[in-house]
Amino acid sequence: MPPPAVSTAPVAPVVASSSSAAAAAPRRPRSLRLRVTPYASVSSSSSPSTLAVSIPPPPPARHSRKQLVGRDGAPAKPAKPRVFFLDVNPLCFRGSQRSLGAFARWLALFFAHVSLRDPVVAVLDGEGGNEYRRRLLPSYKAHRPRGPGTGADSRVIDVLRECNVPVVRIDGYEADDVVATLTEQVLQKGFRVVIGSPDKDFKQLISEDVQLVMPIPEIGRWSFYTLRHYVAQYKCDPTADLSLRCFIGDEADGVPGIQHLVPGFGRKTAVKLLKKHGSLENLLNTAAVRTVGKDYAQDALVKHADYLWKNYEVLSLKRDVKVQLDDRWLSTRDSCNDSSVLSDFILKFNEGQNIRGN
Protein backbone atom coordinates (compact mmCIF):
# COMPACT_ATOMS: atom_id res chain seq x y z
CA MET A 1 0.00 0.00 0.00
CA PRO A 2 1.42 3.43 -0.88
CA PRO A 3 2.42 5.77 1.95
CA PRO A 4 -0.09 8.47 2.92
CA ALA A 5 -0.30 11.39 0.55
CA VAL A 6 1.47 14.52 1.69
CA SER A 7 -0.17 17.88 1.16
CA THR A 8 1.89 20.64 -0.38
CA ALA A 9 0.19 23.39 1.58
CA PRO A 10 2.86 25.59 3.19
CA VAL A 11 3.13 25.66 6.96
CA ALA A 12 4.52 28.74 8.68
CA PRO A 13 7.16 28.24 11.37
CA VAL A 14 5.49 28.04 14.74
CA VAL A 15 6.39 28.53 18.35
CA ALA A 16 3.09 27.91 20.08
CA SER A 17 2.29 27.54 23.75
CA SER A 18 -0.44 25.27 25.00
CA SER A 19 -2.39 28.07 26.61
CA SER A 20 -4.81 28.55 23.74
CA ALA A 21 -5.57 24.85 23.47
CA ALA A 22 -5.86 24.42 27.21
CA ALA A 23 -8.15 27.41 27.54
CA ALA A 24 -10.68 26.02 25.07
CA ALA A 25 -13.55 24.00 26.45
CA PRO A 26 -12.70 20.28 26.48
CA ARG A 27 -14.04 18.52 23.43
CA ARG A 28 -16.86 16.07 23.99
CA PRO A 29 -15.55 12.61 23.04
CA ARG A 30 -17.21 11.28 19.92
CA SER A 31 -18.76 7.87 19.72
CA LEU A 32 -15.59 6.47 18.14
CA ARG A 33 -13.20 5.46 20.86
CA LEU A 34 -9.85 3.75 20.95
CA ARG A 35 -10.22 0.16 22.02
CA VAL A 36 -8.78 -0.55 25.48
CA THR A 37 -6.48 -3.52 25.08
CA PRO A 38 -3.27 -4.68 26.73
CA TYR A 39 -0.10 -2.75 26.03
CA ALA A 40 1.43 -5.52 23.97
CA SER A 41 -1.44 -5.39 21.48
CA VAL A 42 0.12 -2.41 19.70
CA SER A 43 2.43 -3.93 17.14
CA SER A 44 5.12 -2.06 15.24
CA SER A 45 4.25 -4.11 12.17
CA SER A 46 0.63 -2.95 11.96
CA SER A 47 -0.48 -2.05 8.46
CA PRO A 48 -1.30 1.65 8.10
CA SER A 49 -4.70 0.86 6.61
CA THR A 50 -5.70 -1.29 9.58
CA LEU A 51 -4.03 0.76 12.26
CA ALA A 52 -5.27 0.12 15.78
CA VAL A 53 -3.91 2.19 18.62
CA SER A 54 -4.90 1.45 22.18
CA ILE A 55 -5.00 3.87 25.09
CA PRO A 56 -5.34 1.87 28.28
CA PRO A 57 -7.06 3.26 31.36
CA PRO A 58 -4.94 5.56 33.52
CA PRO A 59 -2.61 3.69 35.88
CA PRO A 60 -3.70 3.38 39.50
CA ALA A 61 -2.85 6.27 41.78
CA ARG A 62 0.68 6.08 43.06
CA HIS A 63 1.78 6.71 46.61
CA SER A 64 2.93 10.21 47.39
CA ARG A 65 6.68 10.62 47.47
CA LYS A 66 6.25 11.99 50.99
CA GLN A 67 5.00 8.58 52.10
CA LEU A 68 8.07 6.76 50.85
CA VAL A 69 11.09 6.11 53.05
CA GLY A 70 14.73 5.55 52.28
CA ARG A 71 16.88 2.56 53.21
CA ASP A 72 17.74 4.05 56.60
CA GLY A 73 14.10 4.66 57.45
CA ALA A 74 14.34 8.40 56.85
CA PRO A 75 11.83 10.03 54.49
CA ALA A 76 12.94 9.76 50.88
CA LYS A 77 13.84 12.98 49.12
CA PRO A 78 10.95 13.98 46.82
CA ALA A 79 11.82 13.48 43.18
CA LYS A 80 12.11 16.53 40.99
CA PRO A 81 9.16 17.01 38.62
CA ARG A 82 9.69 15.94 35.01
CA VAL A 83 9.36 17.73 31.71
CA PHE A 84 9.27 15.73 28.48
CA PHE A 85 10.60 16.91 25.14
CA LEU A 86 9.21 15.00 22.16
CA ASP A 87 11.43 14.88 19.05
CA VAL A 88 8.62 14.69 16.49
CA ASN A 89 10.32 14.22 13.11
CA PRO A 90 11.67 10.67 13.60
CA LEU A 91 8.25 9.51 14.79
CA CYS A 92 6.71 10.45 11.42
CA PHE A 93 8.57 7.65 9.64
CA ARG A 94 8.25 3.89 9.37
CA GLY A 95 11.74 2.93 8.21
CA SER A 96 12.57 5.41 5.45
CA GLN A 97 8.93 6.02 4.50
CA ARG A 98 6.82 8.84 5.89
CA SER A 99 3.96 7.45 7.96
CA LEU A 100 1.31 9.34 9.90
CA GLY A 101 0.17 5.97 11.20
CA ALA A 102 3.53 5.46 12.89
CA PHE A 103 3.27 8.92 14.42
CA ALA A 104 -0.24 8.21 15.79
CA ARG A 105 0.84 4.91 17.30
CA TRP A 106 3.96 6.26 19.02
CA LEU A 107 2.12 9.34 20.28
CA ALA A 108 -0.69 7.27 21.81
CA LEU A 109 1.83 5.01 23.55
CA PHE A 110 3.80 8.03 24.72
CA PHE A 111 0.77 9.63 26.37
CA ALA A 112 -0.57 6.39 27.84
CA HIS A 113 2.61 4.78 29.17
CA VAL A 114 5.40 7.36 29.31
CA SER A 115 4.51 10.98 30.00
CA LEU A 116 1.04 10.43 31.48
CA ARG A 117 0.09 13.99 32.55
CA ASP A 118 3.61 15.39 32.91
CA PRO A 119 4.34 18.47 30.79
CA VAL A 120 5.27 17.68 27.17
CA VAL A 121 6.89 20.05 24.68
CA ALA A 122 7.00 18.88 21.04
CA VAL A 123 9.88 20.05 18.85
CA LEU A 124 10.19 19.85 15.05
CA ASP A 125 13.09 20.59 12.71
CA GLY A 126 13.02 24.14 11.39
CA GLU A 127 13.27 25.04 7.72
CA GLY A 128 16.92 24.82 6.66
CA GLY A 129 17.91 23.34 10.00
CA ASN A 130 20.50 21.01 8.45
CA GLU A 131 22.22 23.61 6.30
CA TYR A 132 24.79 24.73 8.88
CA ARG A 133 26.09 21.20 9.33
CA ARG A 134 25.88 20.37 5.63
CA ARG A 135 28.11 23.32 4.85
CA LEU A 136 30.68 21.88 7.22
CA LEU A 137 30.22 18.30 6.01
CA PRO A 138 28.28 17.75 2.74
CA SER A 139 27.65 14.09 3.60
CA TYR A 140 25.72 15.03 6.76
CA LYS A 141 22.25 13.42 6.51
CA ALA A 142 22.58 13.66 2.73
CA HIS A 143 20.70 10.38 2.25
CA ARG A 144 17.75 11.35 4.43
CA PRO A 145 14.51 13.00 3.36
CA ARG A 146 14.30 16.53 4.70
CA GLY A 147 11.63 16.72 7.41
CA PRO A 148 8.30 14.91 7.58
CA GLY A 149 6.83 16.88 4.67
CA THR A 150 4.82 20.09 4.80
CA GLY A 151 1.46 18.31 4.66
CA ALA A 152 2.45 15.99 7.49
CA ASP A 153 3.67 18.99 9.46
CA SER A 154 0.24 20.58 9.42
CA ARG A 155 -1.62 17.47 10.53
CA VAL A 156 0.94 16.56 13.17
CA ILE A 157 0.94 20.06 14.64
CA ASP A 158 -2.85 20.10 14.77
CA VAL A 159 -2.99 16.83 16.70
CA LEU A 160 -0.33 17.93 19.17
CA ARG A 161 -2.01 21.27 19.82
CA GLU A 162 -5.41 19.64 20.37
CA CYS A 163 -3.75 17.34 22.91
CA ASN A 164 -2.55 20.45 24.74
CA VAL A 165 1.10 20.05 23.76
CA PRO A 166 3.04 23.22 22.86
CA VAL A 167 4.86 22.91 19.53
CA VAL A 168 8.22 24.57 18.87
CA ARG A 169 9.96 24.88 15.51
CA ILE A 170 12.75 27.40 14.87
CA ASP A 171 13.86 28.01 11.28
CA GLY A 172 17.58 27.49 10.74
CA TYR A 173 17.90 24.92 13.53
CA GLU A 174 17.38 21.21 13.89
CA ALA A 175 15.07 19.99 16.64
CA ASP A 176 18.11 18.55 18.46
CA ASP A 177 19.60 22.01 18.98
CA VAL A 178 16.30 23.46 20.18
CA VAL A 179 15.85 20.61 22.66
CA ALA A 180 19.42 21.01 23.95
CA THR A 181 18.87 24.74 24.50
CA LEU A 182 15.51 24.29 26.23
CA THR A 183 16.89 21.44 28.35
CA GLU A 184 19.40 23.82 29.91
CA GLN A 185 16.61 26.25 30.71
CA VAL A 186 14.37 23.57 32.23
CA LEU A 187 17.18 22.25 34.44
CA GLN A 188 17.72 25.76 35.78
CA LYS A 189 14.05 25.76 36.84
CA GLY A 190 14.67 22.72 39.05
CA PHE A 191 13.02 20.09 36.82
CA ARG A 192 14.30 16.82 35.42
CA VAL A 193 14.21 16.33 31.64
CA VAL A 194 13.20 13.28 29.63
CA ILE A 195 13.80 13.43 25.87
CA GLY A 196 11.60 11.20 23.72
CA SER A 197 13.60 10.32 20.61
CA PRO A 198 15.45 7.48 18.85
CA ASP A 199 18.28 9.91 18.01
CA LYS A 200 21.56 8.94 19.70
CA ASP A 201 22.81 12.53 19.39
CA PHE A 202 20.92 13.20 22.61
CA LYS A 203 23.16 10.83 24.57
CA GLN A 204 25.63 13.69 24.97
CA LEU A 205 23.03 15.36 27.23
CA ILE A 206 22.51 12.42 29.61
CA SER A 207 23.08 13.10 33.31
CA GLU A 208 21.44 12.36 36.65
CA ASP A 209 18.68 14.81 35.68
CA VAL A 210 18.46 14.11 31.93
CA GLN A 211 17.17 10.79 30.58
CA LEU A 212 16.11 9.50 27.20
CA VAL A 213 13.07 7.43 26.32
CA MET A 214 13.35 5.73 22.95
CA PRO A 215 10.75 4.08 20.69
CA ILE A 216 11.72 0.46 20.03
CA PRO A 217 9.93 -0.72 16.83
CA GLU A 218 10.91 -4.36 17.35
CA ILE A 219 8.75 -4.61 20.47
CA GLY A 220 6.37 -1.70 19.85
CA ARG A 221 7.27 0.05 23.08
CA TRP A 222 9.05 3.07 24.50
CA SER A 223 12.09 2.26 26.63
CA PHE A 224 13.86 4.51 29.14
CA TYR A 225 17.61 5.01 28.80
CA THR A 226 19.45 6.50 31.78
CA LEU A 227 22.92 7.40 33.00
CA ARG A 228 23.26 3.88 34.38
CA HIS A 229 22.42 2.36 31.01
CA TYR A 230 24.94 4.59 29.25
CA VAL A 231 27.83 3.68 31.57
CA ALA A 232 26.99 -0.01 31.25
CA GLN A 233 26.94 0.22 27.44
CA TYR A 234 29.96 2.44 26.74
CA LYS A 235 32.10 1.97 29.87
CA CYS A 236 32.63 5.69 30.16
CA ASP A 237 30.86 8.81 31.37
CA PRO A 238 28.39 10.53 28.99
CA THR A 239 30.40 13.75 29.32
CA ALA A 240 32.81 12.02 26.92
CA ASP A 241 30.07 10.91 24.51
CA LEU A 242 30.55 13.73 22.01
CA SER A 243 34.32 13.27 22.00
CA LEU A 244 33.94 9.53 21.53
CA ARG A 245 31.61 9.96 18.56
CA CYS A 246 34.10 12.30 16.90
CA PHE A 247 36.40 9.28 16.64
CA ILE A 248 33.88 6.56 15.77
CA GLY A 249 31.63 8.78 13.62
CA ASP A 250 27.92 8.38 13.03
CA GLU A 251 27.08 6.28 10.00
CA ALA A 252 23.35 7.01 10.27
CA ASP A 253 24.01 10.76 9.99
CA GLY A 254 26.67 10.45 7.29
CA VAL A 255 29.54 11.43 9.61
CA PRO A 256 32.56 9.17 8.95
CA GLY A 257 34.81 8.16 11.83
CA ILE A 258 38.58 8.14 11.89
CA GLN A 259 38.73 4.39 11.15
CA HIS A 260 38.71 4.91 7.38
CA LEU A 261 41.83 7.07 7.74
CA VAL A 262 43.52 5.01 10.47
CA PRO A 263 42.04 1.47 10.41
CA GLY A 264 43.59 0.50 13.75
CA PHE A 265 42.06 3.43 15.60
CA GLY A 266 38.72 2.12 16.87
CA ARG A 267 36.33 2.50 19.78
CA LYS A 268 38.60 0.69 22.25
CA THR A 269 41.53 3.03 21.60
CA ALA A 270 39.30 6.11 21.74
CA VAL A 271 37.69 5.09 25.05
CA LYS A 272 41.08 4.35 26.61
CA LEU A 273 42.49 7.75 25.64
CA LEU A 274 39.37 9.67 26.65
CA LYS A 275 39.23 7.99 30.05
CA LYS A 276 42.72 9.31 30.69
CA HIS A 277 42.38 12.78 29.15
CA GLY A 278 38.68 13.49 29.61
CA SER A 279 37.78 15.25 26.36
CA LEU A 280 38.77 15.63 22.74
CA GLU A 281 40.14 19.10 23.44
CA ASN A 282 42.40 17.93 26.26
CA LEU A 283 43.52 14.92 24.25
CA LEU A 284 44.45 16.89 21.12
CA ASN A 285 46.17 19.64 23.12
CA THR A 286 48.25 17.08 24.98
CA ALA A 287 49.11 15.12 21.82
CA ALA A 288 50.41 18.33 20.24
CA VAL A 289 53.16 18.63 22.87
CA ARG A 290 53.90 15.06 23.96
CA THR A 291 53.20 11.42 23.19
CA VAL A 292 49.88 10.14 24.55
CA GLY A 293 49.75 6.59 23.20
CA LYS A 294 51.10 4.11 20.70
CA ASP A 295 52.72 5.43 17.55
CA TYR A 296 49.67 4.90 15.31
CA ALA A 297 47.40 6.70 17.77
CA GLN A 298 49.82 9.55 18.32
CA ASP A 299 50.30 10.04 14.56
CA ALA A 300 46.52 9.99 14.01
CA LEU A 301 45.88 12.64 16.67
CA VAL A 302 48.53 14.96 15.22
CA LYS A 303 47.81 14.45 11.51
CA HIS A 304 44.02 14.37 11.71
CA ALA A 305 43.29 16.92 14.44
CA ASP A 306 41.41 19.19 11.99
CA TYR A 307 39.31 16.25 10.83
CA LEU A 308 38.31 15.44 14.42
CA TRP A 309 37.50 19.07 15.15
CA LYS A 310 35.20 19.19 12.13
CA ASN A 311 33.37 16.12 13.41
CA TYR A 312 33.09 17.89 16.76
CA GLU A 313 31.44 20.94 15.18
CA VAL A 314 29.01 18.78 13.21
CA LEU A 315 28.03 16.44 16.03
CA SER A 316 27.86 18.84 18.98
CA LEU A 317 24.39 20.08 19.89
CA LYS A 318 23.98 23.83 20.07
CA ARG A 319 22.87 25.31 23.39
CA ASP A 320 22.40 28.90 22.20
CA VAL A 321 19.32 28.74 19.96
CA LYS A 322 17.21 31.90 20.30
CA VAL A 323 14.25 30.26 21.97
CA GLN A 324 12.87 31.01 25.39
CA LEU A 325 11.11 28.58 27.69
CA ASP A 326 7.55 29.60 28.51
CA ASP A 327 6.71 28.83 32.15
CA ARG A 328 3.23 27.75 31.06
CA TRP A 329 4.85 24.79 29.33
CA LEU A 330 5.83 23.43 32.77
CA SER A 331 2.23 22.95 33.91
CA THR A 332 0.52 19.57 34.19
CA ARG A 333 -0.79 18.61 30.77
CA ASP A 334 -4.56 18.45 30.35
CA SER A 335 -5.05 15.00 28.82
CA CYS A 336 -8.86 15.07 28.57
CA ASN A 337 -8.79 15.42 24.77
CA ASP A 338 -6.32 12.60 24.05
CA SER A 339 -8.82 9.84 23.29
CA SER A 340 -11.16 11.84 21.05
CA VAL A 341 -8.37 13.68 19.21
CA LEU A 342 -6.37 10.56 18.44
CA SER A 343 -9.54 8.66 17.49
CA ASP A 344 -10.50 11.39 15.02
CA PHE A 345 -7.00 11.48 13.61
CA ILE A 346 -6.86 7.72 13.10
CA LEU A 347 -10.33 7.68 11.53
CA LYS A 348 -9.38 10.37 9.02
CA PHE A 349 -6.08 8.66 8.35
CA ASN A 350 -7.70 5.29 7.67
CA GLU A 351 -10.42 6.87 5.52
CA GLY A 352 -7.74 8.54 3.43
CA GLN A 353 -5.92 5.22 3.06
CA ASN A 354 -9.13 3.45 1.98
CA ILE A 355 -10.00 6.14 -0.59
CA ARG A 356 -6.53 5.88 -2.15
CA GLY A 357 -6.73 2.09 -2.01
CA ASN A 358 -9.94 2.11 -4.01
UniProtKB/TrEMBL annotation:
Which domain of life does the protein's organism represent?
Eukaryota
Keyword Hydrolase (UniProt): yes
One GO MF term: 5'-flap endonuclease activity
Region labeled Disordered — which residues? 1-76
Q: Name one GO biological process term.
A: DNA replication, Okazaki fragment processing
**What keywords appear on the UniProt entry?**
Hydrolase, Nuclease
For bias type Low complexity, the affected ranges are: 1-26, 34-54
Identify the residues that the record assigns to the 5'-3' exonuclease domain, covering every copy: 79-333
Matching InterPro entries, A to Z? 5-3_exonucl_a-hlix_arch_N, 5-3_exonuclease, 5-3_exonuclease_C_sf, DNA_polI_H3TH, FEN, PIN-like_dom_sf
Name the Pfam families on file: 5_3_exonuc, 5_3_exonuc_N
Gene3D superfamilies found in the cross-reference section: 5' to 3' exonuclease, C-terminal subdomain (1.10.150.20), 5'-nuclease (3.40.50.1010)
Question: What is the designated name of this protein?
Answer: 5'-3' exonuclease domain-containing protein
Name the species this protein comes from. Oryza nivara (Indian wild rice)
